[in-house]
Amino acid sequence: SRSWLKISRGQQEAFSMSGTREENIFMARLAEQAERFEDMVEYMKRVARMGSALSEEERNLLSMAYKNWVGQLRSACRQIDAMVKTEYSDSPYLADIQIYHEKISEKRKESCVECLGLLEEILKIPEPESPASFESQVFYLKMKGDYYRYLAEHGEGASSYRDYAAASYQEASNVAAQHLDSTNPIRLGLALNFSVFYYEVCQNRDQACLLADTALKEAQMTGAPSEATDQSRSIVQLLRDNLQLWRGGHSQGDGTAVEDF
Asked: What would the pLDDT profile of 177-187 be if each residue is shown by its tens digit?
């Protein structure tokens, strides 16, 4: 539904004031609907740098903005790689194709580094300890792991980025194990992405399967499916799908089809 786009004249006048939190959130939603994810990133960066902790809705908008924008860049790089290996392998324009690929790849790297810097700023904003603050902490540390993982996929510094990703995911896992229920969707999403990191980046299928299987068993022990949210059930199914693929010896390319949530 796009009912949120129907605003009163008074609201329109309020949104015309440049730089307000409400304006930027509204415009981020509009950019999302228009699939202008680079613009969505810009609006949510402004919100994140206003000096106060993000609400659950705001952090989800921030995550969605970067996920879709960086996802487009990652997808473009993969598609060009695939085309070079098939239909364009003997193209007289191969050098031009490679330059274009490098341009997109550099933009992907810049966007990941930018997101990581922003996450460091957000994690420094003080919040009183509470269930919500622990959820936020795990959410942002998981995001750090994700964007270090994307940097570890290609190019110079991959080994260091892999280590940073592992450290971020592990820190998030430690906080989640202590403070979040095993059926919490943020904790389950962390386990999902951490396991994909082991499988796709570290090429460690055994550790990936162990992590995913442990998350599933813990969720089943502490909460019946009927008690979990729809989001938690969706992530549980993705964990099961991954386990079936990995134990069967199949590859998922770079894992982007199922790991992010």
From this structure: 999 999 999 99
